[in-house]
Amino acid sequence: MIRPDPDDPDHPATPGVRPFLQSGSPAVRPAPRPAGPPPDEPASGLRPFVLTSGRVAGPDPNIGLETQVTAAPGAAPTRLPPEKRAIVTLCSEPLSVAEISARLRLHLGVTRILVGDLRAAGHLDVHVLDSDFPDPDTIRRVIRGLRALS
Amino acid sequence: MDFEPFPDRIVGTARVPQERRPGAPPVPVKIIVAGGFGVGKTTTVGAISEISPLTTEAEMTMESVGVDDPGPASAKTTTTIAMDFGCVTIDQTLKLYLFGTPGQARFAFMWDDLIRGALGALVVVDTNRIDDCYPAVDYFERAGLPFVVGINTFHGQLSYRLDEVRWALAVRDAVPVISFDARFRGSVRDALLVVLDQALDRAIKLKST
To answer: A11: distance to nearest CA of chain B, Å?
Structure first.
């Protein structure tokens, strides 16, 4: 069997699902923890902070579930680890953080941290809204749009 | 000679190629669909979403409320929950997301992350298990998020009158209590429009202050 080169641009990383992600993973704790495996967690399974390169700090609160993410123009994600590369590949068109999480079956907390990292590294554009409170005109447009649904 | 497409000359079709502008994704808005286990949240989301509901896992911080003395060591625990969501494209620049979240625990969820920026919430209620929705109602009341109580009429039957449900929930008069059928798109749309009316009221008030 010929294994595809993971850096081959013709065969971009597929969003593979690892068994340990399907079986549910422990939550990312916002607080720093002592070295060594915590005794209160099961020994099996790769913990999320492995995927996040040891990042256990809370994700950027500005990155919400519905926040739109796009690949940065000209970003070449070839040297990224598979999870991050899969995110950049998916975001060739605008996608919400929740959709990234669902499609890659990555825990939402992990997704938010990885998206924040990729933004910091210049691979992704994260389109954070100016205000937490939608203005009346936006809501009126949603109302009109919903009313038009049959 | 190679064929050259002239996308700007395609007429009479909706398939006009859209210019890819990665810098301009739609503005996302969201409505929370909350309620106990099995009350029809996923059905509600699926009835109106243009995509099959997707599921994501998220951790939530829970805090026990009101029962014990919340001392300095009071337990804040995290739990992993599954969240269903769908979306409705309003137009090219605006997209509505619906997030269905469980609320059956005897705890008030710390939903701060989730409701940030939300327009409002639809609390789905099964009148046979009305207390399942108490945590969601409590939370949205305290958070000041506009919400609507939507009684899911399983099989078109409403076993209690709306004012009886309102009495049981003890919600303010300003909170609409409606009935809807989670299986039908039109019914879900109408329920969401009630939520949006509440959201609009709040947005206008916020803007005028």
So the answer is: 22
Answer whether A98 sits within 8 Å of B99, measured CB to CB: yes
Q: Which residues in B lie closer than 8 A to residue A70 (C-beta atoms)? A: 22-23, 25
pLDDT tens by residue, B122-158:
999 998 888 888 888 988 998 899 999 999 997 777 8
Burial B134-151 (b: 16+ CB within 10 A, else e): bbbbebbeeeebbbbbbb
Cβ distance of B85 and A134 shorter than 8 Å:
no
Q: Which residues of A touch B83 (CB under 8 A)?
A: 98, 108
**ipTM score here?**
0.79
Which 3 state secondary structure label does DSSP give B208? helix
Taking CB atoms and an 8 Å limit, are A149 and B185 in contact across chains?
yes
* Ranges of chain B with pLDDT below 70: 1-23, 59-80, 103-110
| A66 in contact with B, Cβ within 8 Å | yes
Split at pLDDT 50, 70, 90, the class of A27 is very low
Instruction: Tell me which H or E stretch contains A16.
Output: none
A142 touching chain B per CB within 8 A:
yes
| The domain defined by A47-147 carries CATH number 1.10.10.10 | yes
Task: Write down all domains in chain B, each with its CATH number in brackets.
Answer: 26-65+77-208 (3.40.50.300)
Q: How many CB atoms lie within 10 A of CB A86?
A: 22
